[in-house]
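Item description
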Amino acid sequence: MFLSIVMPAYNVEQYVKDCVTSCIHQNIEKDDYEIIAINDGSQDSTLEVMNHLAESNPDVNIQVISQENRGLSATRNRGTTLAQGEYIWFLDSDDWIADNCLQKIREFIYSHHNPDIIALNTIQRKGGVDTLIDRNLASEAGDGKYIYDNSYIFPYSGANFYIFNRKFLIDNELYFKEGIYFEDCLFTPTALSITRNCCYYAQPTYIYRIRENSITTSPISEKKLYDSVTVAEELIKRLGNEQTLYKDVIKDAACRTYEVLFRYYILKSDRATQKKFLGIINANNNWKSLLSGVRLKHKIYYLIARVYSVFMG
């Protein structure tokens, strides 16, 4: 089997039909891909919608699984263990893929000698307006550092914008850290930092929906701040891992995490929360330890954060 589409779903009754239907409308042989749709403890009619689609399309390999709520990371990890395909594509259940895209993707992957990771282009839909977020890479082939250095822009930290070789994931024990927000900001740079074998598929095939009440648009919380710190610290641990081929990828990703934590979370929090988390990120000097060899921008934001800490008292 070529591909396993792993689709966690939580309270997406308005959107999940579009996602599953897009996976059904493919011109690839039905026994060459599977759809693993996992209901993660939804409290709306998400499960009913998925069951109806599976029952209405008996010729398509759709597995509908239901579990108590475990979170996105745990659900994706479960999908990885269930998957039978050579490749895994993690879809968000409020997004969808282009009709009849899988055959061309399969041909592309096999023509590039079964890479570890395929980087995809996406179309962003916001308020009914579609915008191509073009990676605009110069070459179809490269390593993880090439993909990261030249196209790790919003929203391409997301694992859903890549297709992964399942053996590559399993052999390198690449799983999503459970129980945190921003798991992709840890998973994706880690995956890119350990492979010399990537390719870039320029034809946009993933349609990314920006909606209210998603994780990325939900309000600031202390958990998000703590989880950002966790992501940065976990990335720093990877610097000492022998699997890590491109340590500058990890350093840059960790600096980005600290920068986002400071700019978009700490600065927008109340004064007490600001002091608390500035103290946390300054206490162990982890951010400072990353600054050798990184971009000037990261050094500047570190200095701004330090000055701000002094100003806060």
User: Anything to note?
Assistant: Residues 3-209 form a domain with the Spore Coat Polysaccharide Biosynthesis Protein SpsA; Chain A fold (CATH 3.90.550.10).
